[in-house]
Amino acid sequence: MPICKQRKLAFCHVPRTGGVSICNALKMTIVDRHSPASWFRQSYPDYFLFATSRPYIDRVESTFGWKNPEAVKDRYEKGVNNVGLMLKTNEYFLDTEVDFLIRFSHLNEDLNTMLEQLGMKKVRLVQCNSFR
Which of 38, 53, 105, 116 could bridge 96 with an S-S bond, Cβ 3.0-4.6 Å? Predict the structure, then answer.
């Protein structure tokens, strides 16, 4: 689970939704990787909880690298074995309301809108962890 104690932010990181880029941009500490929103609410009740959203089929395509079959081979050769976690539905992670939901299709724009609403400095995301 990515958190930022200084800003009191908690990030419910749904796999394959740009979370690594967000964590890097906000310099978040990784306490646990992919926990449901309800876990964050319980563990950090006074933190601003946000998450990212992406259509499930797009997440599945990204997980398996359907647009780049060599990426799948590379992942398995590197021993990536968390595919089961990545295939969990969006509802598994977003099992309770979050304070702000960032759309994957507008990742940088929505993140900066959230930061602006919180009175924080805008950031520029750098794409990482991609099959492209």
Answer: 38
